[in-house]
Write a structure and sequence with these properties.
Mean pLDDT: 80
Number of strands: 0
Helix content: 55-70%
Shape: elongated
Strand content: under 5%
Order of helices and strands: HH
Radius of gyration: 15 Å
Number of helices: 2
């Protein structure tokens, strides 16, 4: 049981680290996708991550 919890924690830490890195990258980027809905920084902060604004046509 402890091993499963350790593996789950490591997986969570990797995912969280990826989200933090993506958020840092996105804050330094200039999105050029015309169909992308870019919210204000306050909305992005409220949503924690910008993944919620992604969609495909």
């Amino acid at each position: 049981m402890v091993q499963v919890m350790d593996e789950a924690r490591r997986a969570y830490d990797r995912i969280f680290e990826s989200l933090v890195k993506h958020h840092e990258w996105f804050s330094r980027s200039l999105p050029l996708i015309a169909s992308e809905n870019i919210p204000s920084p306050a909305v992005r902060e409220a949503m924690i991550t910008d993944f919620g604004n992604r969609y495909a046509e």
